[in-house]
Amino acid sequence: MPAWHDVTASASDRAEALLTELTLEEKIAQLFGVWVGASTEGGDVAPHQNDMDDVIDLDALLPNGLGQLTRPFGSAPVDPALGALSLLRSQRRIAASNRFGIPAVAHEECLAGFATWGATAYPVPLAWGASFNPGLIERMSRRIGSDMRSVGIHQGLAPVLDVVRDARWGRVEETIGEDPYLIGAMGTAYVRGLESAGIVATLKHFVGYSASKAGRNLAPVSVGPRELADVLLVPFEMVMREGKPRSVMHSYTDMDGVPSAADESLLTGVLRDAWGFDGTVVADYFGIAFLKMLHGVAGSWGEAAALALTAGVDVELPTVKTFGAPLAEAVRSGELPESVVDRALRRVLRQKVELGLLDPDWDATPEALRDVDVDTADGIRGTIDLDNAGNRTVAREIAEQSIVLVSNDGTLPLAAPRRIAVVGPTTDDPFAVLGCYSFPAHVGVQHPDTPLGIELPTLLASLRIEFPEADIEYVPGTTIDGGETAGIAAAVEAATRADVVIVALGDRAGLFGRGTSGEGCDVESLRLPGAQQDLLDAVLATSTPAVVTLLAGRPYALGSAVTGAGAIVQAFFAGEEGTGALAGILSGRVNPSGRLPVSIPASEGTQPSTYLAAPLARSNDVSSIDPTAAFAFGHGMGYTTFDWSAGQHGPNTVGVDGTATLGLRLSNTGDRSGTETVQIYVHDPVASVVRPVQRLVGFQRVDLNPGESVELSIHVPADVTSFTGRNGQRVVEPGEIVLALGASSTDLRITHSVQLAGEARVVGFDRVFHPSFTEIARSAS
Fold first, then answer.
1. Number of DSSP helices (H) and strands (E) in the chain, helices first
2. Domain architecture of the chain: domains with CATH
3. How confident is the model at residue 41 (pLDDT cuts 50, 70, 90)?
4. DSSP 707
5. Distance CA 261, CA 593 (A)
6. Torsion angle defined by CA atoms of residues 236, 242, 245 and 250, in that order, rounded to the nearest 10 degrees
7. 207 vs 607: CA distance, rounded Å
8. Where is the signal peptide (predicted)?
9. Distance from C-alpha of 592 to C-alpha of 123, rounded to nearest angstrom
10. Average pLDDT in the 500-507 region?
11. What is the distance between the alpha carbons of residues 402 and 190, in angstroms, rounded to a whole number?
12. Does residue 35 have a pLDDT over 90?
């Protein structure tokens, strides 16, 4: 038996044994993927895809082997069972074509669910952040991973750990929010779920993508080393240590003139040397070729390949462009040592060993087809359900827990109104709950004659179910981004006739300018798209109580609604169960518990802006621009009330290596069960470098019945106060630290000043990331 088939040997030894048998061409073949099913006309599903669409001759490629298969399910609508059968046959062909029977790793997108036809469309990552519930997100990702694994997929390209720095950026919907700690906590949960299902999780985009100038996609990034270390890298650092992902995807952008795909200091120095990562680094689609095409740091495809491979990129995706013949020529000419190819190959082969792809009994048949005659496709269609009741239950829970009640003067919940007017462009749009990486929005729109594959009830349909006795009148008023105003008068008339008017506003997800939110759909300001603000202003000018609902991918300035609306409800692309959840919140069937993962701006033109603001980045007397948010990070309301009071705090002085203790008594003083999200913020009054005024370092959802109280002891390690000092080292400094417990970043209920005593202490990758919450007692009234 060949040594690489010996399951009693270590993964590294098995990989090394196979590596020594491979020719240069066979080695390189393991370092790229192919995207056979990609679209060559119509809408792209990756930037510059058509520029890269070289003809792939599989018969010529496969005898040397193949590293990856790109999106076998996610490139066109395919019945899941037929897709699994097609992948099985492809894997058999790949293994049979090369000398050593090595199959490919198959990867798919899974940002808000398995991105294939007929699979559950979960809420987008920004909604995960709004839930402040890591356990729920882990349940979701475990289900996503199980679905992917069942049909033969090995790797998922998620989660996105980019920190929102400018909400004009189109991909805000793909992020978890504007706070590094929140992103790290939720991202860790997602990775744990995906990896527990046997799927290789891929962190992206490493690093800085979201900090692009003016919020433009792929634009250059200019950040200092402190912002890089203390903001942009933190989520990756947390997830790397606590989630144990097996793959990372480099960012498209350049940072201070160095493209991420060619940045050895990041991909090797930080990722591998400092953090100990031993998995694979994969290219964002066409990112290696962009070193020549867009960045201008390579003069040839071979030079681009050598730059990326030397920096630490192991796999070229989505298809072979630079890692084929150009890379082989670079090695043969002496431009690149073969040892650099071997370094990447060891990582790739070790991962294939871990996935069971080099086991002697490897079988291409996925779990979902184990009891099916795979030699025929007869009767196989429709036998695999990727949108089952369990998936939809989790999707509904996330939607319900992520929708944020932003403001409410008592208009909500609606008390059985007789006449409801519903106006606005997201009222009757089934796509209004989907992000741009959902299959229907990402790929399905290119196949308009194909059914959606999942049920997507519109908000109008869900309202009619939620309020069966009401007379509901619907007038769109305008489109999402067309700018039409002719229908506004009819919307105003409908509002005037009603007991309450629901103004349904928001986004349409798309790609590269074909939407108002999504990849390449960046905006100049945070004004509502099209004529939606005009519609909103006109309806609010009536005397009818108005509820503003937003199904969107980013926060928008809401103008007159901040003070003029009876209530504002924010949903971030809440998935296929989203409209039912939203209707349930309007009726009161669901008590809202979501919190804002991004601030809602007061002005449409104050970007870039973030709650992680230093004193001079806040409102002051030396600038005429006031960046103060209308509704701050962490804010959210519900239909019950909570009383906060201080419990027993710990000592006022702790060591720089110690732990501070805060006590909290939290009581539900309302008449229904509810959830309060306790948030911990750190304020550093005097530091050696400028610090944010407030910074989230922990949170906990607390569920309480009416009249119920809970006493919590909260332990905050000094490590969470650390930051990058003047010498570039992460340090816990002695001195005063103000810890605050609050309901949002601007609603701080309890503060406790602590002196950190001792000498400044350097901390690193092994530092403590989280406070801990201990329930001391729980009692009913």
1. 21, 29
2. 3-41+65-369 (3.20.20.300), 396-631 (3.40.50.1700), 642-780 (2.60.40.10)
3. very low
4. T
5. 40
6. 10
7. 21
8. none
9. 16
10. 98
11. 16
12. no
